[in-house]
Specification:
- There is one protein chain.
- By secondary structure, the chain is an alpha+beta fold.
- It has helices at about 25-40, 90-100, 125-130, 135-140; strands at about 1-10, 45-50, 55-60, 65-70, 80-85, 110-115.
Length: about 140
Amino acid sequence: MRFIITAQASADNDGPDAGGGLDEALLTAYMRFNEEMYNAGVLVASEGLNPAAPGARIAVRKGKRYVVDGPFAESKELVGGFYIIEVGSLDEAISWALRAPSGLGTDDVLEVRQLTGAGDLPPEVLDIIRAAAPTWSASVWQART
């Protein structure tokens, strides 16, 4: 099973101190955690996300797409980074999340959610997906079905 662990600031967090500089010990803890998950064979991907301000949002209203200008949600509502892991159960995913370092100001709340896999979908939905995207679906679900 694949899970995404997202990190964001807690509601009572004022955000990171922009002038605080690099916390080498904390960054080292994050990288060691990534290394531990990688060596355990559970880490699929791990990335931080840049601030939302230089990004973009695309909204859809009545079938029309448009770019939404800021301001965006408060920083405490934004995802600051994520891990994608492949483990045997939700309990195992939670166990990894409980060991994750914290303290960069964007990771005070970790959310663990299972990613949708082929086994989670009804056969008729899988048929549509395989017909519409045969190459992609085969590459994504080949090893997991």
